[in-house]
Amino acid sequence: MPMKYQIYTSRNYRQIAQFENVRKEHLRDIDVVASVLPFKTNNYVVEELIDWDNYQNDPIFILNFPQRGMLHPNHFETMARLIDTNADASTIKEAANIIRHQLNPHPAGQSHNVPEINGQKLTGAQHKYDETMLFFPTQGQTCHAYCTFCFRWPQFTGMDNLKFAMKEVDDVIDYIKVHPEITDLLITGGDPMVMNANILDTYISRVLEAKIPHLQTIRIGTKSLAFWPYRYISDPDAEDVLKIFEKITNAGITLAFMAHFNHVRELETDAVQEAVRRIRATGAQIRTQSPLLNHINASSKAWSDMWTKQVKLGMIPYYMFVARDTGAQEYFGVSLTRAWEIFRNAYNKISGIARTVRGPSMSCTPGKVKITGVTEIQGEKVFVLEFIQGRNREWVNRPFFAKYNPKALWIDDLEPAFGKKEFFFEEELAAMLLD
Ligand SMILES: *Cc1c(COP(=O)(O)O)cnc(C)c1O
Ligand code: SF4
């Protein structure tokens, strides 16, 4: 059945019929947390994905609706007091901005990856790893719904001067032309699939017309299949979008549709399955990725179910990420030890066809670091780590070791094993970041 896209935010969410049965204190929690963390959902998520009979523990409810535990208790109290006393909007906004700035809004040294062409910075692009250039089209800087764990939230709250956005795709093309090492253009956001077909077509056509010989793959990073599959079924420009995908594959360029899914529930509706069929029929491949999130998918079964279902629908599992050190990390964070156990216990239950997935991986300043495992070497318990991706390609696939720390949530919590002062890449990384 075609569906008309209806957005819910902190302003109108109480209109959602299912909220009649939601406890009053939960509504207040939503209001308080939403004053700091932006919140947006839509009628597909509300009507087809959330299990309202069990909403308090429902992974999709937690994925879209702010939860009390997502703020530090003292931050929560500060905002609650302002809201309970009907403070004016500017006071609330000021207090919220102070808290936001304490939540590490710019992780992973992203400001170091801004490429330059003809003496000009391409602020809507990133080039961190040799083969892949990231492009953030201006009109793709929002999403069909917001994930409560999202590290990109600074750009949704209107506070971000660094907002990676750029109208001009031509500079990106010029840049790729003189960088023969780039084989992949990754269009990301926000979610580029919030763009209408006309705008998307403008970007894609210009790239295709440039006929860059070394460009092999266009990737589109998107959560639209999970949040709004009607984008490919009944939106007014759904057919046009699919034609754009065909145009890419007909030009001999691989279209890798990088789909973000967090839970098997997102793969179960008729709408998502129909959308997957339509996208695959354009010749695109669909690869999947997700962070590992406490309260949403922190069990090996959640992952083996999800990967198995993805393969059944013709998708290729690609990455499991460790939740980043920003926003509500204390709520969503899973220790590196546990992340590895969850990965391993899911990975060993799935077909080899699904074992294309890699992780658990931390996207951090030096690269994508995978927790290969925990073991003991000469009496010392260690994490075995390796780069899946590195700022220097020579770092990739070289095992290195950190002291075992059962509480570690992120690479910052790790120290080199065997009494070493630093990890093998640190000196070189420091020099790179000075550039
Ligand atoms: C993950 C990522 C890529 C893509 O890396 P692949 O290993 O090719 O998937 C590119 N750029 C950045 C900044 C990334 O984080
Ligand atoms: S879809 Fe992606 S960019 Fe959008 S809110 Fe979710 S994680 Fe963030």
TrEMBL record:
GO-annotated molecular function: 4 iron, 4 sulfur cluster binding; catalytic activity; metal ion binding
Keyword list, A-Z: 4Fe-4S, Iron, Iron-sulfur, Metal-binding, Pyridoxal phosphate, S-adenosyl-L-methionine
Family matches, as InterPro entries: Aldolase_TIM, Lys_aminomutase/Glu_NH3_mut, rSAM, rSAM_sf
Domain of life where this protein originates: Bacteria
Keyword Cytoplasm included in the entry's annotation: no
Cofactor requirements of the protein: [4Fe-4S] cluster; pyridoxal 5'-phosphate
Family to which the UniProt record says this protein belongs: Belongs to the radical SAM superfamily. KamA family.
PANTHER family reported in the protein's UniProt record: L-LYSINE 2,3-AMINOMUTASE AQ_1632-RELATED, LYSINE 2,3-AMINOMUTASE-RELATED
Protein's recorded name: KamA family protein
